[in-house]
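Morning run. Coffee first, then this:
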Amino acid sequence: MNFSIKNWWLLPLIGVLFIIGGIFMMVKPFASIAAMTMLFSVSFLVWGIFEIVFSFANTRNQNWGWYLAGGILDLLIGVMLISSNLFEQMEILAFFIGFWLIFRGSALMGHTFEFKHSGNKNWGWLLFLAIITLLAAFAVMAIPALALGTMLIWISISLIFLGVFYIVLGFASKGK
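And here it is:
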């Protein structure tokens, strides 16, 4: 079976752009962290607004208050990040990621015990993953600069692999 797509050459082009982005992040770490921090600052503001709107649109759901609380928290953090200078944003962002991971890890532990009580046999793995999430959260809180640097490294490596994937996919999609 012959598989080909039109404009296949766009995929390798996108791949090259991802690779360039990944390399740029490695070569210019401060500029990359600054850009990433600004992007997250605006993202938290937007996420907060959307989550608040979502919560009011779903007031019949018994958990709508949790969505509202999370939306307000994201909105406040977004406002705080945007109104501070870049260095404060970086520090706040690292701490927020740590607190966010603690919140999510704790929620995962709660879900794990729900699985255990429902008779699901995979609850042990879920508990293990929840604990790993909490340990990672505490590591982020202990050394925020290391957390941002590590995040930058993983993102840049991911972009490079994503770029290689797109290049291979493009040429594989070329057909004969």
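The CA atoms of residues 15 and 163 lie 4 Å apart. Good start to the day.
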